[in-house]
Every structure is written in C-alpha cells, then in structure tokens.
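Quick one - first record:
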Amino acid sequence: MGDKAGTKKRIEELGKMLLKEIKAGNNPFMDIPIRALSNVAFNPKSRIIEMGDAKSKRYFFNIAHIRKFVQTVTAAAIARELLAVDKHLSLRQVFYRMRRTIPGTNIDMVDEQTESNEAVEDMELLSDSSRELLHINANKNGSAAGKIIIKDKGDLIDWSKLGSGGWAIPSNTEDIEFKKVDAKFVIYMEKAAMWERLHEDKVWDKLDCIIIASQGQATRGIRRLLQRMNTELKLPVYILTDFDPWGWYIYSVLKFGSIALAYESKRLAIPNAKFLGLTAEDIKKYGLERQKIKFTERDASRLKQMVDYDWFKDNKDWQKQFKMMQQYGGKIELDALVTKGISFVSEKYLPEKIKNKDWID
C-alpha cells in the first residue's frame, strides 16, 4: 500500500487507461483481483492469510458486468475528488454520494450500501491502497486507555487523562504518532463493558499496559493501531475474549487476517498475538460450569468451520480447545467472572494469566 500521492496517481492512471480503450473503440475493462476463498491461502511462513494472484476481467459492454463496472468507476471518481480537496467521507456518506438515478432510466446507481462498500473494496485493490488512503472512513467503534501520549492531527493526547470514556479510536489510525509510551504490553478485548470494568480499576496503571476495546469484531482502525503498536513499539498484544466460537474467531481475524480482507493482511494481521481469554481449563479452575450458555446452531457451525481452518488445523493447543468446547456444548462469557468478585478480572485473573504466561499462541 502506498501514500496519498501514489494513490491519486494510480486512480488517474486507471481513468486514462479506460479512456484510451473508449477512444480506440474497444470494450473498456478492469482486471479485478478475485475476493473469494478460492483465491485465498494461509502462508505458514508469514503466518497470515494472503490473497492469491487470480483476477477476473470486468467489461463495460457486458450485461452481467456493467452495473458493477459503473459502480467501481463512480467509487474511483469519488475517491479522486476526496483526495483533491483533502476531505473525508464515511462509508455511509459514500453510499449516498453514489445513490443517484442514471440519466434516461429509472435505475439507481446503487440500491444498498453493500454495493457501494464492494465498489470501494474494488478500488482498494485496483489502486493498491487502503480505504483510509482513499479518504473513506468507517464509523468509530473503540476505546483506549493507558500511559501513552499520541499526536493526532496536531493535538497531543494523553490516554491516561481522558476520564471514564478513554480515547475514542478513529477509523483511520495510520497517521497517529506515538510520542511517549510507558507500557509493557497491550490487552485488546471484544467488549466495551469489560473495558469499562478494567478501566475503572485502572488496570492499565497497575499492570503497566494499554487497554483497547471494540464492540464485537474490531474495526480496521483498531486492527491497524494494534498492529502498529506491536511492530513499531514492540509491545506484545494479548487478546481477551469469551469462551465462545465468535470470540475465538475475533482472535483469529486479529492474528491471521480475514478471508474477506486477505488483501489487507500485511497491514492488519498480528501473527505473534496471543490469546489471553477464557479457556476450557479456566472454566474448571474458576468454577464457572453453572454459567454455561447453550450453543445455537450458528455457534456450532462457526466452531466447526474454525476446526478446519488451515491456520488452526495443525495447532494442537487450539484443536484441544475446539474439542473440549464441542464436548461442553456451550459457551461462557468473561463477564461471568464477576461472580468471583467485582474486580476479580483486574486483581486475579489477568495478573495470574500474564505472570504464568498462561496464553495460547
């Protein structure tokens, strides 16, 4: 992925190439990398999910291609405009920017945001640039706290002095500057409620760490921030989730990357992240059996898929956890640990886990 100047240049080159084809009387086309499981593979050396080289041609004069072709070109025009005026739009705003009726027809350019989102993803691949470099952002969805001072858009921000809400993590964390850091590691958690519990106990101060949370699957901004902290600041990253297939899937995405965003793995994945969340052994150790939540069919299906993932299939520790969860037939939330005490997670669970290096790679 390049810089903003390179991004603008590649978008313009795409436009010039299409214009040349039109002037020559040819059928304009784009080579779009295929975003599907068939074109994705796990690289055991880099330990990340990577996209292959397979591409498909998308033609303007093809009834099956024309709609997506026009949507992608429109996304390119919007990105070029944003770069020219140095302003940003959210994904939702891009949808509305694209949503107009094609002259002479009663057909809208896009009907659903999924269509505009996919057009933006096409542009990421065609321009070899991240969505953020295209000046297109997602919604904020995360909080951070710790003994760290950053510089963001010219402002110095001390994460240890932002009250109960902490620092709201933006969609684009690419240009954040780390000015002063007093931390030994980072703990990421999937739930804002757990982050608030740990923040109130000032775990970041007591354990000399940084705590970061989202609400469910981490945004790209959070994933990029975590990766930068790991690679640039050399801070270990620990993932704290429930004893739950979906929590474990969040860990998988953070560590190895995702199938849908395989083309972004090098920017987002953290191959040396460790799992610090609830395990089958923890359930027995802390007497949480009564807190079991029975599996739904969707839960069981997600677990079954993970068992067969290439990045897990040869990992004995994870296969053991998968098997024990299948036998258990249910899941348990981290929040259940409050049955042992309001500050049990802060004062006993996390300190003991970290001291004993009780994590899974």
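second record:
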Amino acid sequence: MSRIREKVTVIGAGSWGTALAMVLAANGHEVRIWGHKPEQIEEINTKHTNKKYLPDINLPESIVGYASMEEALTGIEIVVLAVPTKAIREVLRKMIAVHNEPVMVVHVSKGIEPDTLMRISEMIEEELPEELLTDLVVLSGPSHAEEVSLNHPTTVTVSSKNMKAAERVQDLFMNSYFRVYTNPDVIGVEIGGALKNIIALAAGISDGLGYGDNAKAALITRGLAEIARLGTKMGASPLTFSGLAGIGDLIVTCTSVHSRNWRAGNLIGKGHPLDEVLENMGMVVEGVRTTKAAYQLAKKYDVSMPITEALYRVLFDNVDPKGAVDALMSRMKTREMEDLTNVLQEDKKD
C-alpha cells in the first residue's frame, strides 16, 4: 500500500517506544527516537540494539537516536509520546522549552495521575499550549512490545476527538502485522488501558499464591465489570470495554509473562515486599500508581470497585495478599447480571 512518508519522533526509548519506532520504520517513515540516557542512544545509533529493553532484537538502521530533545524535534510534525505516566509532565515541559512549532501528539502510555485524577490526554492538554498541539490521539490495545518487535500479529485501536487525526495515525502505523482500528471514545480507550493494569496486578498475586486459573478467570471477569462501572460513570461508552482497549488488553495483560504488572503481582503473591519488587523489575509498573488513582476515582464517583480496593490495601496498607484475595472470594452474594444492567443504565443517563 502506498502511504505518505511522515517525519516522526518517538519520545521515550523504552521497550514500547522502541517497538513502535520499528513499526514506523518498517512503514518507510523517517523515525527518530529520543532518550535521556546518552549511552543508550549511542547503542541505538552504533549497534542498532536496545538490549536493556528488547534483548536479541536488531533495530532498523534507519531509526536515529537523539539525546538532545531540541534536535530530536526539529522539523517534526508528529510526536509519539511513550514515557511512563509519572514522567509525562516533565517531558512535555522539556519539549516546550526547546520547541515552538505545533505538533500532533500520539500518546501510547497507560495510566491515570493520582490526586489530580487526570487521564493522560488531559495531562497533555493541560501542559501543552493550545497553539503547539494540532491534534491529540490515543493508541491502546493488547500489545506487548516484545511481540511487536518480532513482527507478530498485533491489533490496536486509536482514538481522538478529531477522527481525521485518528485516521491519519491509523495510516501511520497500519501494516501487514500491525492492524489499527479507530474508536471515537477517548475516555473509554484511556480508562480501559489504564485500569487493566490493576486487574493484572491482582491476577499476578492470585497466581503467586498458587490459586490457579479458576480464581484468575473470576478476577478478570469481575475486574472488567469494575472497569466498565467506573468508565461509564466517567462518560465512556460501555461498548468500548468489550473491544480491544477493554477485554482485549485485559486478557493479554493478565495472562502473559511479558506483562510487567502480572510479574510484579506474581512476586507480591509469593511474599516479596512491594519496594523490593519495584526495585528489581527494572521497568515502570504502571498499575501501582494507577491503583491509587482508581481508588480515589471510585470514592469520587461512588462506584463499587472491590478488587481495586483490595489491591490498594495490599499495596499501600500492608494487608496480607492471601487475606485480601480470600476476602474477595467470600464477599456478600450478588446477582451477576445486575452489574451489566447498571452499566447500561448509566450509559443511557448520559
């Protein structure tokens, strides 16, 4: 398929940013990648590898690494923002300090900021002056960087308030192994992508305790109900949670050894303290921060989120993981279909 050759800078040289840079390079775009560690950028440019994040993967030589934010952004119209939630504001401020030309931002991170309770798109809109942001697009869905870097079949979704912008990003990334759908529901796509990390942590804890597939299936299913309850209360469409950014991302994150949130939960379930787990992971575990934010959102919107609350107690109140999971399984009886009915009713109110 013929496509317009775009100039794109990926901000963030972690596993996901690097994997997406590989997709863009495979599609014939001019691709730059910025990282804050000069030694890592030198490795990308001279050895064409990023061994810390994607071992045994050779990068296309057309990907050029930059340690200078100003140089990385010169002449660029599209920025792919691939940094952890906690670094987004700092990185955007660095961008503003050295770049005064308008850009489209495609954010690919998954999280919610504690205390402000902002979704990532809201953080970006707050930090970037209106004249510097032409469009804002979210890319999300079931996608492990390790598999994308091997050209394994992957399907994601993109969302924006401006669907023309979403379609431009769809064309930017789409190829024979990386399929891209569009979805107008920005809130649902962001909430689904962020909250699935909470359920993945809980699933990992359950596995670490040795509770098996039955318990994990229950956590995933009931976890989806929690995500949908909160998401629809915040204005999302319930249909989004039955799609790629909902159940799709939830399944892959709760069941794969590639999932850092599942791995972190698994270690916690085996008795390792949170601080030790986070120190040894080597990469950001977004679900920890998001658990705090979702717990606060549940209180704000008066939404029942028992899995999120139980995980919050384990992470921040030192509650025993086994006791928390056992308490979840022995909660008061309820009717399963009430959840679906309530979610649909909330959507009709909106």
